[in-house]
Amino acid sequence: MYASREDIGYDFGDDSKAGSKPIKPNPNIDGGWAWMIVLSSFLVHILIMGSQMALGILNMEWLEEFNQSRGLTAWVSSLSMGITLIVGPFIGLFISMCGCRKTAIIGGILNALGWILSAYASNVHYLFLTFGVTAGVGSGMVYLPAVVMVGQYFQKRRALAQGLSTTGTGFGAFLMTALLKYLCTEFGWRNAMFIQGAISLNLCVCGALMRPLSPKDVVSEKYVARSNSEDNRAKALSHSAETVKSNGVLSEEPEKKEEATNEEVLDSVQHIEIGGKSRSGRSMYGLRILKTVSQLTVTVRKGFAIWYSSYFGAASLFTNRVFVAFIIWALFAYSSFVIPFIHLPEIVKQYNLPSQNNIFPLTSIIAIVHIFGKVILGIISDLPCISTWNVFLMANFTLVTCILTLPLMQTYISLAVVCALIGFSSGYFSLMPVVTEDLVGTKHLANAYGIIICANGISALLGPPFAGWIYDITHKYDFSFYISGLLYMVGIIFLLIQPCIQKKQPREKSTEEAQV
């Protein structure tokens, strides 16, 4: 059930399996329809992530309409953004059962319904349910399939493809901010949300574009070698995959027996249906319902078995120590990126820089450079001589350094330089699906990346209130940056030490065997 070394896609120097089978590359892998998947994912990021980045416009309208505290009103936006990411593991269950296309279409309908129902809100608590929960869950059901499908359709240029698709967040932040501001001015915030709900139905179109690969194409992906050899990182990760395999793989025989039993049931239903043609139409209608229910039961059981084994089975994702370290890193990473957006206005005000900031806001510098950072880091990571893992770590080190040094900057130019570095280095977000796929393989990408974005969601939900709590105690924004930066550094250290431990273990084992 777990990814082999070939699944991970690294070059281990063992081409025995790959050489024994002639491979006919699918033209849709790294080309053809794959670029339509990138376009679909790009539009999803515009409509979902871009809209969430523009919720400040609606937040001001809600404050004026409902006369509630800023803290209570802000929870509407926080719930929507947090739930979008936190529901990741459960969306993985839907993907296992229904596939990415159906999950995304259902999510698009749910997201649009959340926007439309929110137009009739009578209080903030109503918005918690309609916009925070309903629209948030719908967003999560579209966002995860959009990322997973890009990973399935690309092998050689995965980092570039993910970088291009995720730039939709930056473009969406500008487009949706301008759109919501115009709609609220012309039609009022209620009609604006109703219109935005209608626009969100385009997520269903994006989901329809997510054409699943045939089983033959999925199998052939296992034997497609990536053009960039990442030997150093591969050696560190190879034992991780082998350890999981040695810890125990779910036996396929029970699954085959269950499938055979289910097929027998369906065949018997079909025979009954054929033999009973002379019977009344009512009984035939009942047999068709029974057949549909049986097929649905088989699909649900199979999907749940895959989802359950990924999290709790013998070959659980949590038996991969590097992946567990990746989860710990994700718990601290996202809040460190969000906190500068919260405290930058305070920094500008303290150093008397509002006039310069009004001309070109520091947050806009981060957003613009963030777009270029995703694409450039993706291009660099796809180079044959470059390791994606090393690019990912270098970007993290640059970002944590900027977070720790930002409070020391006292001029607009120095702050602008640091903000530009924050925007560029945070482009590593486009590498997260690539690194996740390298750790667990394409087959487990949906469930694994669901866990990662869930950790990011927890960080996004709790990080800003934690930073505000520190500010209330110390009355200084500096400590928010220092504490979040140190926690972020702890997560990076986990990423560094786990591959070393994995690499050291087989050496110790071989020494013990030699002594025996």
Automatic annotation (TrEMBL):
Bilayer disposition of the protein: Multi-pass membrane protein
Positions of the Major facilitator superfamily (MFS) profile domain: 37-503
Listed transmembrane segments: 33-55, 75-96, 103-121, 127-148, 160-180, 192-210, 322-344, 359-377, 389-406, 412-435, 447-467, 479-497
Molecular functions per Gene Ontology: monocarboxylic acid transmembrane transporter activity
InterPro entries the record matches: MFS, MFS_dom, MFS_trans_sf, Proton-linked_MCT
Biased composition (Polar residues): 240-249
Any single Gene Ontology cellular-component annotation: membrane
Residue ranges of the region described as Disordered: 230-262
Sorted UniProt keywords: Membrane, Transmembrane, Transmembrane helix
Location relative to the cell: Membrane
Protein name per its UniProtKB record: Monocarboxylate transporter 14
